[in-house]
Please model this.
Amino acid sequence: MSNYFEERVLSVHHWTDTLFSFTTTRDTSFRFKNGQFTMIGLRVNEKPLLRAYSVVSTNYDESLEFFSIKVPDGPLTSRLQNLSVGDPIIVGKKATGTLIVDNLTSGKHLYLLGTGTGLAPFMALIRDPETYERFEKVVLVHGCRQIAELAYGERITAELPKDEFLGEMIRNQLIYYPTVTREPFRNRGRVTELLTSGRLAEDTGLPAINTETDRFMMCGSPQMMNDLKGIFTQAGFKEGNHGEAGEFVLERAFAER
Amino acid sequence: MSFAVTDACIRCKYTDCVSVCPVDCFYEGESMLVIHPDECIDCGVCEPECPAEAIVPDTADDAQRWIELNARLAVLWPNITDRRDPPADADAWKGVPDKLKFVPEAAA
Model:
């Protein structure tokens, strides 16, 4: 299969009984932009079984990291969640995706809106120095149902601010806004409501959302992406793409089955 | 579950979609591209790329006819994996209605 790299699993971490992350080796020729995804999977009965996964690690990391849900009876995730260190895994050579800074015009505030595993591409983007060079403030919103699902929270709040290279940019420019819908927490509410009510901007101390200073990247369910696209289009924001940068971009975190 | 190319592609054939597709599921006819519905993984990255807005999700209003047409033509045509320059008059054909007559295989 010349379209794939043959890699090995380096580590597996379970966040909850439905969420896990894993790292793999990385071929030195695998290149991608922070925020992109690639196809990854396993050979099942000699046939490659693949799904699209955002790369959680950055393009300057030596290994690859991915964040996954466990789909009940899912042909791939039911196997992926049982991977052990050293197990083989295949990684597609062609990374792609809409969630790249090049697809956005310049602005002051970059809002990254991720729900569930939709956080994944933003983990790479918040460790990309270019993100902080292009935007003064970066607001990372992670929406989940429960607190336990707020994966990577400690990495974002405790480790990244101490990062040798990015720490200062992160301390000064990154605003982390986790929110849950189903239990008491310092932030509550659905991402769509937090936006339309103005509460997100209020809570982060930024001006009300406007087309002049604000740019958005979003990753979540197809339904949420449709809802948000409608909200932003109505508010006068233009969707960006590779051919022409715009004010928002979105990507499905998974496909409906 | 799939996306599909509509007649808006015909005689424009910008092929911007091809360069972003992670699974190379586009197939090339003389004047348009189609998506193989069984190979499409529904990632949706192609949709915003098309300057002619010729790609629709299967949840769109009249998507079914396009899914069926794409399924039929994708098995007749060769796979395309790299972007090509569009025809010189592509922009003139953007938004022009009723272009299906230019695809003989569509009538078959």
Remarks:
- Chain A has two domains: 4-92, 101-252.
- Residues 12 and 167 of chain A are 26 Å apart (CA to CA).
